């Protein structure tokens, strides 16, 4: 068992990682929830894991109530948020209670936001069931839903009280989803850890093929990196946490263009976005062309998109740039971009001109 502390003063919590943990979740949750009934929010694709979790709570003498919402990105919406908060109110959830988010990043972001605003703040616990949620979204307290204008534009910082990660639940995750989550794993290497990127180059294929040791190593490494960065800049004010947004300004524009649908998953958009960020950096002499090629080559090797065309996006450059204007990092109309001086040397550049980004995007093959 690996335990990683997310150190945030009064909001600190542990992330526990262990194969088979779901079946022992009751023991871990008992000290938090006491004898209160636990609402568990999940989608239909994790029904088998919901059953294991409920049995484990039952064995610990804890009652639970499942709330099942539709799977997919479109559930990060006002409509689903309203249904969910109404249901939680019907169940009589109190501020001191803990709602469990059992699922991927969609469930985690939605439940996190619902509990941030329900009665002005209730407790929640993340039990992530996708690779993406295990290495990224379950940790750090970014919660929210999408707006018509773009991705994650409505939300709050609201930290979970605990995160329980059972890597063995990934056995039921479709390969496409595993790959998409892997993009956020590699992101940590690209940001500030060239050795970890090299580890991904050597072990990514095995990880995706089901190598349990590689999977567990990557999850623990990623969570430790995220805990460190979030611990330094919880509310994304100093620029440190913004590094976790590598590939996301491009990526969110691609997701918006795909209509937040299964046409392009978040992790796929992030992979293409990282390739574009490195491509842009190389085109401006910030990093070498070899670095950009290395990023693209890795995405190709593991079957992730490394370009607009590979992501299936043929939108004109101006429309992509229009999506970017809603970026939450914008300040005074200027959008900072995560660029790279090399692999593991990402930095926030506040001087990038959107005209220049549009010119770069216009040159990308459609
Ligand atoms: N809050 C953050 O810091 C943060 C970080 C990264 C991504 N995100 C958000 O996370 C979302 C993407 O999350 P995701 O990739 O987990 O997508 P997701 O939650 O839609 O899950 C992907 C699919 O896998 C299914 N599924 C989940 N676990 C499964 C399992 N064990 N077995 C079989 N099927 C399973 C789901 O039902 C869904 O169909 C995006 O909205 C993204 O913006 C948030
Ligand atoms: O935790 C963070 O900080 C991140 O940026 C992690 C990202 O992978 C994640 O997709 C996040 O939701 C993006 O946040 P946003 O504020 O750019 O929408
Ligand atoms: Zn992301």
TrEMBL record:
Q: Which residues form the 3-dehydroquinate synthase C-terminal domain?
A: 181-330
| Annotated binding of NAD(+), by residue | 105-109, 129-130, 142, 151
Q: What is its EC number?
A: 4.2.3.4
Q: How is the cofactor bound?
A: Binds 1 divalent metal cation per subunit. Can use either Co(2+) or Zn(2+).
Keyword hit for ATP-binding: no
Please write the reaction equations for the catalytic activity of this protein: 7-phospho-2-dehydro-3-deoxy-D-arabino-heptonate = 3-dehydroquinate + phosphate
Major localisation: cytoplasm
Cite the entry's keywords alphabetically. Amino-acid biosynthesis, Aromatic amino acid biosynthesis, Cobalt, Cytoplasm, Lyase, Metal-binding, NAD, Nucleotide-binding, Zinc
Task: Recall the GO molecular function terms of this protein's record.
Answer: 3-dehydroquinate synthase activity; metal ion binding; nucleotide binding
Residue ranges annotated for the 3-dehydroquinate synthase N-terminal domain, each copy included: 67-179
Write down a Pfam family by its short name.
DHQ_synthase
The pathway where this protein functions is: Metabolic intermediate biosynthesis; chorismate biosynthesis; chorismate from D-erythrose 4-phosphate and phosphoenolpyruvate: step 2/7
Localization in the cell: Cytoplasm
- Per UniProt, the enzyme's principal EC class comes to lyase
Superkingdom: Bacteria
Q: Which co-factor is required?
A: Zn(2+); Co(2+); NAD(+)
Q: Name one GO biological process term.
A: chorismate biosynthetic process
Entry binding sites for Zn(2+): 184, 248, 266
Supply the InterPro entries for this chain. Dehydroquinate_synthase, DHQ_synth_AroB, DHQ_synth_fam, DHQS/DOIS_N, DHQS_C
One GO CC annotation, please?
cytoplasm
Its family remark reads: Belongs to the sugar phosphate cyclases superfamily. Dehydroquinate synthase family.
The task this protein performs is described as: Catalyzes the conversion of 3-deoxy-D-arabino-heptulosonate 7-phosphate (DAHP) to dehydroquinate (DHQ).
Protein name stated in the entry: 3-dehydroquinate synthase
What organism, scientifically named, is this protein from? Answer: Sphingomonas jeddahensis
């Amino acid at each position: 068992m690996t335990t990683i502390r997310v150190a945030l003063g009064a909001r600190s919590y542990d992330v526990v990682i262990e194969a088979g943990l779901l079946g022992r979740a009751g023991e871990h949750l008992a000290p938090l929830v006491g004898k209160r009934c636990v609402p568990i929010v999940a989608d239909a694709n994790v029904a088998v894991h919901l059953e294991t979790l409920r049995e484990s709570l039952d064995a610990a003498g804890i009652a639970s109530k499942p709330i099942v919402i539709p799977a997919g990105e479109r559930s990060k919406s006002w409509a689903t948020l309203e249904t969910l908060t109404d249901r939680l109110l019907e169940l009589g959830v109190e501020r001191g209670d803990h709602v469990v988010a059992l699922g991927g990043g969609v469930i985690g972001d939605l439940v996190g936001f619902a509990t941030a605003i329900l009665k002005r703040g209730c407790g929640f616990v993340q039990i992530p069931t996708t690779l993406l949620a295990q290495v990224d979204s379950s940790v750090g307290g970014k919660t929210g839903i999408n707006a018509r204008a773009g991705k994650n534009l409505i939300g709050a910082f609201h930290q979970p009280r605990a995160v329980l990660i059972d890597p063995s639940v990934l056995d039921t995750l479709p390969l496409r989803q595993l790959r998409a989550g892997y993009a956020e794993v590699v992101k940590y290497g690209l940001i500030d850890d060239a050795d970890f990127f090299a580890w991904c180059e050597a072990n990514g294929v095995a990880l995706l093929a089901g190598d349990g040791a590689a999977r567990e190593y990557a999850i623990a490494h990623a969570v430790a990196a995220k805990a460190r960065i979030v611990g330094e800049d919880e509310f994304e004010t100093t620029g440190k946490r913004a590094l976790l947004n590598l590939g996301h300004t491009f990526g969110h524009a691609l997701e918006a263009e795909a209509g937040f649908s299964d046409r392009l998953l978040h992790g796929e958009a992030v992979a293409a976005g990282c390739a574009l960020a490195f491509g842009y950096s190389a085109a401006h002499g910030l990093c070498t062309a070899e670095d950009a090629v290395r990023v693209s080559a890795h995405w190709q090797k593991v079957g992730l998109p490394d370009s607009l065309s590979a992501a299936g996006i043929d939108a004109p450059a101006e429309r992509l740039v229009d999506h970017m204007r809603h970026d939450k990092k914008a300040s005074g109309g200027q959008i900072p971009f995560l660029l790279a001086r090399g692999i593991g040397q990402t930095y926030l550049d506040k001087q990038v001109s959107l005209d220049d980004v549009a010119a770069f995007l216009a040159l990308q093959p459609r």
